[in-house]
Amino acid sequence: MTPKVRLAIFATAALAFAAILWNAEARIQPSDVYADFVNRVTVPERQITDAVTAVNFDIRGFDTLGEEFIMFASVLGVALLLRRQRDEWDGPPVDRARGRQVPPPSDAIRILTVALIGPLVLFGIYVVVHGQATPGGGFQGGVILATAPLLMYLAGEYESLCRVAPRWLVETGESIGAGGYAIIGAAAMLRHEHFLQNFLPLGKAGDVFSGGTVAFIDLTVGLEVAGGFILLLLIFLEETLVRRDPA
Amino acid sequence: MTWLPYAVAIWLFVIGLYGIVTSRHFVHLIICLSVVQSSTYVLLLGIGYRAGRAAPVFADIPPGTPAVDPIVQALMLTDVVVEVTVTALLLALAVQAHERTGKLDPNELGIIRG
Amino acid sequence: MLTPPIPVVLPLLIAALLAAMPRMPRWLAFLLAILTTLTVGCVAIALLNYTREEPLIVYWFGGWTTRYGIAPGIGFAIDTAGAMLVLLGSILTTASLIFSSRYFDTVGTLYHSLMLIFFAAMNGFAMTGDLFNLFVFFELMSAAAYALCGYKSEEPGPLQGALNFAVTNTVGAFLVLTGISLLYSRTGALNLAQIGRSLQDQGADALVVTAFALIVCGFSIKGALVPFHFWLADAHAVAPAPVCVLFSGVMVELGLYAVVRVYWTIFSGPLTPHASEVRVLLATLGALTAITGAVMCYAQRHLKRLLAFSTISHMGILMLGVALLTPQALAGVEIYVVGHAMLKGGLFLAAGILLHRAATLDEIQLARHPRHMYFVAVLMIAGAAGLAGAPPFGTFWGDMMIGGAAHGLRNEWVEWIAFAASAATAGALFRFTARAFFGWGPKVELIGEPGSKISENPDTETGHRHTPPAMYLPAGALILLGLVAGLTPRLTGAALASAIHVQDRAGYAARMLDHLAPYPPAVEDQPLMAGDLLRGGAALLVALALAGFTLRAHRVVRAGKLRPAVRWLRELHSGVIPDYVTWVMVGTATFAAAAVIWLRSY
């Protein structure tokens, strides 16, 4: 189809679709059934004060296992797609615009990023570990943790990133995180309970170690998400900086 | 004004798809896909909001206080992770396509047809 | 009750383990993967056995059982249909893994991990009773599929195929998610049975009907129904053969399964007053798909793309069966899915063997240098006969039941379309086999110029002189299973019982939410009639005649009036994502508009 014809057809269909969706959404009157149940039940039954984490890792924990593996599969897919092909070879990072005066990384950036890495890692661990008490959890904290090696790359060169986060370490960490969630769930089955049943002592609401298994699931998910994002970073940087086409 | 999130959701959906249909660059296309995904976030959160209620975190407020819907927030979290990872996969495909064909225009890849 | 999580959790665990050890020796990785799929297969057989007494196996994750009539946790609801799909997935994945164990380039353990994750997601999709869980497994299945489709990333073709696949299916996921949000807002539930129960008293207003349209259209993109089907041929043409087996055998059928499950647990209640309109809507989708798929299939010369369009056509036939909305038709669909999956899997593996030996899958190139690989030719002829619906393949019994249901509703045109589509796709395969393996017919282009410029690097290292048993044994086994599936005793009776349970909305909800056990109905087998045998045989003969006519009377074919029409249809399949997304929008808007006009109660 020529672009004009295509746009005309699309515009008509999109207008009709928007009208139909508007007609439907105008009749939305949200129902409180599920929400009120969860809000009532998280603290008394699971000692978790953050209802969103309770839903994510306990009440609907199986969904989160699937979602974690979506992340895992996508990172595997990226590693597969950007793998070294037979006719490519690895070389040191090369400036594509030759003859250009490359300014060295500025001292301000170096100091700032190095100074930020420590607090960032600490903050990330804090968010991961406190998921069951305050807003946060494995996913949010994992993403914060994953930015620490990125800061290392900004402060230094590609090699410093590779030294801090070697690929084999990140891959292993990510797999342990992914498998760990499934193992925690399966451990409940060893006690003749249902998969992902919360079988650890629940602690007191507001503590770091409340919520039973949720505390540990937070850690494994944080590990997996951080590992996944760092691995994505490593793969994309390797593809851009290091891969060389056949001459 | 409770209709505003729904209007924004519909707008994002349609304009994102418009971006995909008129796109001339794969990276642009993939980002437009993210825009379409954002429409589902806005819709979900619009459904979950209850005027005048607190956040569903009972650390400072006594348990049993009326709070907004935590389920849609959890659904949205799942959604965000899915979107990020699928975007990463698509970008890897686009990067590799550029390496192999030198082209980035969706209209011009032209290897599979008919 | 320990077994329901195993088909999902075990493959995921082994996939994580394999990914953590990329330097594992190849034989060990394959051994672990095949042991996993075999274990899951045994679990599936155990589940199938259990569903004969207990029609719905209910399993609540995290121990969150129902309270005050609501279902707070995620539940698996495994009935015969779901367990059968898990078994089907296990058989096909095992066959694919065995096929790829000899020469396939596995990139460390990435291939095994992705296949196991794909397998786990398909199992979860088939077993779940929760709508959002369905969506999560849909996305997991899709993510692994995109990566597996773009596997041979050193060529540009797989990348374009994977991009088309990924963008189109992601748009489908958004449509489904919007529908789920609408349903959640109305009912405050995510469990299928609970949503159904909540909606059945209310009747269908614009919101419910729009949600129905969105969910059906979103899953139809996965199920490759017209006009959402464009991605499938692109993806199949470039994905490695063992991966295509899973795509065509289980993944696409799961899209249709989702439509069936969601309709019968949620929408059959509020849409009961308009059942005949629903029939018309779904049957239109099915008929369009069957015809378009058949025509495009006949116009292809690349074997995998030909098989892909054949899958699209058969999905149209399945949708026609689903659209009839009776238990007999649904039973026919179930049997047909099993038969088609085995046969299509075997055919794709045969294509993989051909590629391994000949390094090309193009009909004209093969016609110039015919390969005398008689075993593969026999497989393809047997597969084609099965796809035509010849007795005693599984597909024959499926056709028989769908035909019987159509007859009962006075909708004989459904039978005719199914007949024509299966004859056409089988004829295309007969034509291909005749030219590529025996060198019959002219060595020039008949239907039209080739569209795609797919230069096929084989999945394996090139130009082998013989085929290892690891490759021809699974191919033969799958075709044989397609044949043998039709010979199972009391097949039609078992399928009918399963279909009745799928369509029994009140019984499903009672078993899932109230732990009651309504008494299952008594069923009888459908008797085999002479008319059915005649019909199956006639389809086979028509397919052979079509192939023969094309090859012998090629001058008539080349001068025919059909060529411009076929060329126009082929140009629509442009391989360009913006076109595909436009068609998705057109299809969704049309379906939703028709639904809102005709299916509302108030």
Descriptive notes:
The complex is a heterotrimer of chains A (247), B (114) and C (602). Chain A has 247 residues and is mostly helical. Chain A has helices spanning 3-25, 33-46, 51-59, 61-81, 107-129, 138-155, 158-164, 167-190, 213-242, and strands at 89-90, 243-244. Chain B has 114 residues and is mainly α. Chain B contains 3 helices and no strands. Chain B has helices at 4-21, 26-48, 70-101. The longest helix of chain B is centred in the C-terminal third of the chain and has 32 residues, at 70-101. Chain B is elongated. The mean pLDDT of chain B is 90. Chain C has a domain at 272-449 and 469-488 and 527-559. Chain C is 72% helix and 1% strand. Chain C has helices spanning 6-20, 26-53, 80-99, 110-127, 131-149, 156-187, 192-200, 206-222, 230-238, 241-267, 275-298, 303-323, 327-358, 363-368, 374-388, 394-408, 412-438, 469-485, 491-502, 505-514, 530-552, 554-559, 562-572, 577-598, and strands spanning 57-60, 75-78. At the B-C interface, helix 1, helix 2 and helix 3 of B face helix 5, helix 6, helix 9 and helix 24 of C.
